[in-house]
Amino acid sequence: MEETAGRGAGASVDIATETFVAHRNLLFTVAYEMLGSAADAEDVLQETWLRWSAVDLATVRERRAYLVRITTRQALGRLRTLGRRKESYVGTWLPEPLLTAPDVAEDAELADSVSMAMLLVLETLTPTERAVFVLREVFDLGYDEIAEAVDKSLAAVRQIAHRARSHVAARRPRGTVSPAETRSALDAFRRAVETGDLQSLLDILAPDVVLLGDGGGVKKAVLRPIVGADKVARLLVGSLSRIKAETSLRLTEVNGRPALAFRIDGELDTVVAVRMDDGLISGFYAVRNPEKLSHMEREAALRR
Questions:
Q1: Pairing of β 205-214 and β 280-287
Q2: Would the pLDDT of 4 be above 50?
Q3: Are 232 and 209 in contact (CB under 8 A)?
Q4: I want to staple 72 with a disulfide (CB 3.0 to 4.6 A). Which of 20, 28, 67, 149 is the partner?
Q5: SS3 for 251?
Q6: How many Cβ atoms are within 10 Å of 241's Cβ, its own excluded?
């Protein structure tokens, strides 16, 4: 009898493990979109597994929804902790860039939701608004499932979703820009900064373009936003011209969008993502903090 019970417990653990592994990429994507930090998203997954492994599966009606609920609650707690860390962060805090596979870019809605530009828009929401927006707009969860995940009434969740949608719509990039258009703009940018051609660079920048840099107090970066095409262009061209070591600026895929990887003597130094509005580059996001570049070594699997 004890042997039978042992086999039953073992089978339950196997099912729990298989279920978690099957949904791991989805859960990571939920956590990452809520946090903007891959390292914190990985921690959330560890916490989710510990709680999931202790659940009596016989009481779970829908395993995917249950796992998403655990992940959301853990991410909400982590998001509040992350908010306190950001208050003491040196300079601008930017989302952690992820090297992504072509299949992420092929899912236009997923690519849009994890883009650096959108993650920065999500930073302007409250933790609960962000969770509701991500679960509803990206993962298409029902309001009843979201209400359970964020511990709010159905009516409250509907109101939060409406408020978050309006907030995001007012701040998200204007116009639809294809990956090919972004690659073309980045190619033009790369040629302009490599040749020092200031006018060619100005031609692809929006007049009110903003440059944000994240060195985390470890690497030198602009501490405050640089605003205006002329200022941004001169800073970029001037900064690169002063580097005496061997450098390369190459196209890559970051968060489902074309971006640039800047290397010095073969070592990754900076990841540059952009925001495009009406066909022009309106935002540069330069991540230099070494702690945020570890997920650029291998492709991240993101799923909806």
A1: parallel
A2: no
A3: yes
A4: 149
A5: strand
A6: 11
